[in-house]
Amino acid sequence: MTTIDEVISTPGEILLEEFLQPLGISQYKLAQAIGKPQSAVSDIVHGRRAITPEMAWLLGHALGTTPRFWLDLEATYQLKMLERREMPEVRALA
């Protein structure tokens, strides 16, 4: 049986597993390339920090993707995490 935790990848896991590891780029090297502390990259990789628009822009330029790619990953992840929570009932206004 697969749990929801096994299905949802954080944007940081995708950064690590689909970009950094295959390309042989360390978190430190990425941090140097984008002018951010290595702790910022590490926090994203370990799911402790969300990808902001600024970080999406930096990652996109450093890794040959678009900022939208990273923002979409983050938004999708955040929405899936909300689906796991008990949300209040909302009455449609229109």
Helix and strand layout, with pairings?
Elements: H1 4-7, H2 11-23, H3 27-34, H4 38-45, H5 53-63, H6 67-84
Helix pairs in contact: 2-4, 3-4, 5-6
Q: What would the CATH topology be?
A: 434 Repressor (Amino-terminal Domain)
General form: elongated
Rg, rounded, reads 15 Å
Instruction: Quickly give the CATH architecture.
Output: Orthogonal Bundle
Distance between the termini: 40 Å
DSSP summary, beta strand count:
0
- What is the domain total for the residues? 1
Helical region count?
Answer: 6
Strand content: under 5%
Largest sheet: none
Q: Which CATH C-level class is it?
A: Mainly Alpha
What is the helix content? 55-70%
According to CATH, the homologous superfamily is lambda repressor-like DNA-binding domains
Averaged pLDDT, please?
92
Helix/strand/pairing class, anyone? mainly alpha
- Low-pLDDT stretches: none
**What string, H for helix and E for strand, traces the elements in order?**
HHHHHH
What does this protein structure show overall?
The chain has 94 residues and is mostly helical. It has a single domain (7-82), classed as lambda repressor-like DNA-binding domains (434 Repressor (Amino-terminal Domain)), CATH 1.10.260.40. The chain is 66% helix and 0% strand. The chain is built from six helices and no strands. It has helices at 4-7, 11-23, 27-34, 38-45, 53-63, 67-84. Helix 5 (53-63) crosses helix 6 (67-84). The longest helix has 18 residues, at 67-84. The N and C termini lie far apart (40 Å). The mean pLDDT is 92.
